[in-house]
Write the structure tokens for this entry.
Amino acid sequence: MSTVPASARAVPSGPSVPARAPTAAGAGLVSCHCCHLLVRPSAADAALKHAACPRCGAALHSRKPDSLGRTWAYLITAVIFYVPAMSLPIMTTVTTFGGARKDTVLSGVYYLLTSGMWPLAAIVFFASVVVPVLKIVVLALLLVTSRRGGGWRRHDRARLYRLTEAVGRWSMVDVYVVTILVALVRLQALAVIEAERGAVFFAAVVVLTMFAARSFDPRLIWDQRNEALP
């Protein structure tokens, strides 16, 4: 009767679990936030926490200082501003024969849709309503999961962050439309378009969510719960 060697019996049949990849922080390296140079701070600088990048002179940090707190502050402020951005009119159209008409973001989308301009209505709705809401939800998800730590769907969370940072600026399309209309229609004699307070709040929401995405450190997605958080 043949016997199987012990070394053969010890090899698992399923897929092997890859070892944890080495990190720059684990190797004592720090990436500059300004020029992205990978630096190994001296022991004295690391102890005093005032290391500077040798190439551009910017302060070096293993993680963005107080990243989660700053991102929460920007995000909560954006949520507060989102209410008047949606409820207040973003522009007023004054015509010679038809009087004045005030439009919010949603009423403007509805007007474009009923006027037969559904492609433009879809673009404005997606860029001005869907994108800001999704960006706020995604950033809140990243903040909560990064605070808890752990390895839940890290690759998907990293992709969500890259997507959020890339598409966030396109929410400004509604503000651009109002600006272009104000500039163009003022040249006409039959109508005048004026920007309203809602446009200011909406622009503030877009800028705040962009700041929130920039202040969030995506490297926190890969940190373990027992590692230092900002």
